[in-house]
Write a structure and sequence with these properties.
single chain, globular, alpha+beta
Amino acid sequence: MASKEEKKENIRRGILAAASTYSRELAGKTFLYVIHQTYFEVSFRTNCFLHLTGVATYLSAKNFYKKAQNGTLTDKQFYFDKQHPYYNAKDKVLCLNRLPELTNQFVCILYHMKTLTFVYKIGVTNLEFTLGLTEHIDKTGKKADSLYLPRTLRVHDHSVERSSDPMDDIVDFIFRKDASSDKYTDLMIADKSKQIPDPVHSLLEPDIFSKQYRTISSATFTPVH
């Protein structure tokens, strides 16, 4: 049976691996999710990473991510408590390394996702784990822009059941761009039986489909019933 020190070291290694994945595939990028005639945009910022790990720390979110990303985070710089139990962090860190799956595979969109302490306006789930999103609020408490930011990662909880109209919406398209770019440049996933809504076309690079048409046929996706 693993000792407390070994368990914590396993969590540390998991955080480092997840930070590497986050840095390579998510950080500094924005994703556009299209469902029916609506859409929303998600920005994966570096200061969001800490909230998804399930651990507590005295470091700032920015410094925590920096140390995790460059491999210098130590087991003395994070801890577990009543709000951040070990078993929760263990599950979250495993799924955190798979977080890109919520940007390049067909996922369900949840609305008004309720947890014990918060209601998330939007959630994205593959039914194994769920990303809870909140609006981007500035320091004054005002809405900064139309972007959504990751705030929580839920694993095997009741996020789906606690949402209004759970599993009612399966994403039709997901696009990606660098956060500094004006237009979306990459098509991540597409249901070939669906049409892109007119308002979305203005958000895309004109040659996005001719440059790369990396779609996954809807025939390869089995909807959840």
